[in-house]
Amino acid sequence: MNPNDVFITFPELLVWFPLLSGLIIFFLNKENQVKKLALTSSFITVAIVVASLFFTDKKYFNFNNVSYFWLPSLGSSFALMYDGMGRMLCLLTSLAFPLAFLSSYNKSYTKPNSFYGLMLLMQSGLIGVFCAMDALVFYFFWELALIPAYFLSSRWGGERRIQTTFKFFVYTFVGSLLMLIGIIYVYLHTPDLTFSLHSFTNTRLPVGKEEITFWLFFIAFAIKMPVFPFHTWQPDAYEQATPSVTMILSGVMVKMGVFALIRWLIPVFPYASQIYANFIIILAVIGMVYASCIAWMQDDLKRLVAYSSIAHIGLMCAAVFARDESGMKGVMIQMFNHGINVIGLWIVVDLIERIWGTRKISELGGLANASPVLTIFMVVIALANLALPLTNAFVGEFLMFNGLFSHGIWTTAIALFCIILVAIYTLNMVRRVFYGETKRENVLSLSTIDSNVKTALVIVVLIILVLGVFPKPMFELTQDSVDVFMSKVKGLF
Amino acid sequence: MSKLVYLVPLLPLIGFLINGLGRKSLTKSLTAIIGCGVILISFIISLILFFEVKAGHSEVVTYFDFITAGTLKIPFAFQVDQLSAVFLLIITGVGFLIHVYSTAYMHEESNAHYARYFSFLNLFVFSMLLLVLGANYLIMFIGWEGVGLCSYLLIGYWFKNPEYTAAGNKAFIMNRVGDFGFLLGLFWLIQQFGTLNYSDIFSKAAGMKMNDAVLVGITLLLFVGAIGKSAQLPLYTWLPDAMAGPTPVSALIHAATMVTAGVYMIARSNLLYTLAPTTQGVVAITGLATAVFAATIALKQNDIKKVLAYSTVSQLGYMFLGLGVGAFTGAVFHVMTHAFFKALLFLGAGSVIHAMHHEQDIRKMGGLAKRLPVTHWTFLVACIAIAGIPPLSGFFSKDEILAAAFSANTVYWVVGVLGAVLTAFYMFRLYATTFLGKFRGSHEQEHHLHESPKAMTWPLIILAILAAISGFVGVPAVLGGHHELENFLSPIFAGSVKLVHDQHNLAHSTEYMLMGVAAGAAVLAILVAVSKFSKKPDLEEARGFGRVLQNKWYVDELYDAIFVKPLRSLSGFLNTVVEKSGIDGMVNGVGRLVNYGGRQLRLLQNGQVGAYILMMVVATLVLFIIQLFV
Amino acid sequence: MTINHYIFLSVALFCIGIIGVLTRRNMIIIFMCIELMLNATNLLLVAFSKMHYLAASVTDAATTVGTDGQLFVFFIMVVAAAEVSVGLAIIVMMFRNTHSIDVNFLNRLKH
Description:
The complex is a heterotrimer of chains A (about 500), B (about 625) and C (about 110).
Chain A: H1 10-26, H2 31-52, H3 61-64, E1 65-71, E2 76-81, H4 84-103, H5 112-131, H6 135-155, H7 161-189, H8 197-201, H9 209-224, H10 233-240, H11 243-268, H12 270-297, H13 301-322, H14 325-356, H15 367-370, H16 372-385, H17 392-405, H18 409-434, H19 451-469, H20 472-489
Helix pairs in contact in A: 1-2, 1-5, 2-4, 2-5, 4-5, 4-11, 4-14, 4-19, 4-20, 5-6, 5-11, 6-7, 6-11, 7-9, 7-10, 9-11, 10-13, 11-12, 11-13, 11-14, 12-13, 12-18, 13-14, 13-17, 13-18, 14-16, 14-17, 14-19, 14-20, 16-18, 16-19, 17-18, 17-19
Chain B: H1 7-21, H2 28-54, E1 59-69, E2 72-80, H3 82-105, H4 111-133, H5 137-155, H6 162-193, H7 198-205, H8 213-229, H9 238-241, H10 247-256, H11 260-268, H12 270-274, H13 277-298, H14 304-324, H15 328-355, H16 368-371, H17 373-387, H18 393-408, H19 410-435, H20 443-448, H21 454-469, H22 484-499, H23 508-533, H24 544-550, H25 555-602, H26 609-629
Antiparallel strand pairs in B: 1-2
Chain C: H1 3-23, H2 27-57, H3 67-98
Helix pairs in contact in C: 1-2, 2-3
């Protein structure tokens, strides 16, 4: 294959393919057909991403970059780029969907065609966000990912789903709006009046204005991640959304926030981010301890996982702002690993709720007697959640703490307090749910843990263990993005 | 051959995987063969490695890059040298005996649980091997956390009992408190030296000045990790609770693995500690305080395993005392002898518990000497060894530590000897109450009393021999020996020895005096204990101060009151007040404000056409005025 | 007559119109008041148109300055006629439905 003779690039393929199959699915009627097509499509997406991992070399530039005029009068071009971080997050996105589909394969949704169609639409939007190189395209995909999420969580889910989705939507929409204002403001100051990332990063905003614009962007991303104190939409939304949607929301969508910090916020506003780094790190660290404390108090498994996720994301945010190379590497691989782990947790929580009819920790107990298999999966995933060495999360967290340490010993010490808290609430949960005498009979047969679910869990556990022992591929994959980021912040200290 | 060092931890890992994945299909004998076999092969390889090292061949074997981030490069590498070789032998050797013992001890379990047990046991050995083999602090930390995990899994092995699983949680969480310090220490090391490899760090640190603030900070933080892992004051409370696990597991935790990790870590970083005398002082005092404190608690415990648990805490205190006064060899020596006699004690206790049908209260035993002869004799050997009576192993190792303590500070020595006397006393209280006198259990128990099967007694016998003779590898010069262990380990501690010049300059006469006093006092304590408890065991409920000791100085209650409860109520406060009413209340408040504002503004829309027009006119007028005047 | 007289007259007419609209409840009277305001505007437009024309014609006899004002008046009259026809239709419909032409009777928007 001639590297310069390209029919379609990887990022385009990854954006259009799920979109197209999503649209096709909308017009199908039979549930079985819909499920099969959705699953096949999601696996093909994985295959595309995996294939793309072999074309990372510079000489395949044309495979990975695309740009054509979109709105020439505005100076916006449809630019997508596929770099290390984008690749890694696309891999996560592409893996998350088959896992979500597999784990709920034997569950039926009302209007399955809309459900699966919207899911694939969301996948397209997410991939677009991770590849966008133009602020307007970025914003476009950002919303494209959000809108299906809104419909998905308002139409399928728990009883209070309408209120919580409304809250979620208003919250993130306020953020998006602020970001849009910021984008337009920066756009008006770019030297060549374009939306491209390149000219955004080369724009010097007037003194005093950069700080304000920085906050416009940061609040949008902080809501998305979410960082304390913008987090309250999250536990509610996760609790009420249907588990497959929750998996995508927490596994992939929150990464949009962290990703945007690295790709957009800090490179575009290097000075403002330096000024406020201290403040944000402290905020994130407080959020970590705070969320861990609250996770300990939760009786609802879903809320526990949600708060635990807030704590983990807080660490990522702090490590990004510490702007240390090892910390950045940690953030990169932790974005992927956290996604996988949290999806694993949701799969198990979903199974527990379906089989035993409740997700209240106080009502559950002794599940290990009934289902040792589920217990093993849960213990492995829980251990990954508390970042035990040789599970995938350890390397990332170790490096992030190390990066944070370069910022200050006391902040690190307070943040490290979380490794004690996470052990307390995770092990307490495992103990109260899985150990002890059987407290509650299953309402659904244990065969709900069928081969599909098991496949999903085995994939999760394998990723946990393989990346825990051998994280090198992830380091190599994301090296270029870290280099770019570090070159942007270098010389500012 | 040292290329094959990866097999040493890999084999237990394979054993873990086979037993873990095949737990439903494997028979018990197959499980046992796999479980013990992998450890045996590891032991044989360790033995070969040991002789290679002894021949002067030590090296670092690098396998792959574990972490590469900028200038920080952490390889997955193993270090085969004198220190790791000694630990390898202890871990795989004692570990193997414990595995063999377990095959009989755990035989009542169902197939799947039996396999689960052995897989955890293998994982435990794997983690510990990783800990001692790692060529940098990160690999050590992997093993460090790994043993924490395995202790959690094995202490909560009988997961139906909520108390046991709570004990497992406690072990893990307390260890995490230690890890908190350890990790901070690691980050500081990275910042200071840019690497975690032992050799690089030590060569860079050698040039630093004594008591450099950074080094003191780092060593103190690493020591926090050791406090957690090796159950020193104030983080020791998990270890006695860890008795919830099956008895061989206790033997594994206390003798071959886990708790010695802290000692290993400090012995490995001896150069850093020698460069930080302030930390050394803290280590010594912590060790000494733990040694005596735990010994006082052991005086009044009535659970056979609890007594042994506190004795472990106390003996670990001695090891830290040794480390603190610079007697690194002595500490490692004590690790080794302690591994033998403490494994023996626990396995002996297991044998007693097995015979008594899971009765652990020594007040209901007595007179077991005749019924369980092998257990009795081996237990007696262990008791003499731990009490420090020559020529059994405990005497030599403890004497070395106490001699070093004496040359560092006479007060250390006095308190140390006091602890040794207490040790002798409570061990023989235990021995006399359990094996001497009349049987006090139920009739049925008496009827079923029997010596344990061969798989359990043979490990006891082997360990008893080792506990008796292993002291001879470290006979000091004053007794006409060459102290082979010290010679063997000297390359490891060479850097520290160079820094401290006035080591072991005690006159021979002083040394004789020290030995005589320590051993004599121990013998006296033994005689008192045996005569007091063999006829009239201490059966009543303790009163007064004894009650305080029996309740472990109320430390658990104290921690509960000053750490757990406040943290829990803080979390509760954050959850109910700050989160729900505060932050979420504010967010929802904004929504409610908009709602309310809308409802109020709607009232303007009153349907009176006149009112609308009036508003229009007023607005027009206002605009006019603004146009005119502004 | 100076332009001021026209302005005063049309302002007076306009104010009478406004006050009528604001105070009266009879829809027909309100309508008449609206017409009054429209015509006040017309008067003003015509007056200014004339004034500008006179001022310009001094120098140039063939000037068309100010004629657009006159044109506007026609537009307004057309619009007013259309408005009246629609308005009257509404009033008739309202009377058929409510047997009243009181505007305050039509306050259902409130609910």
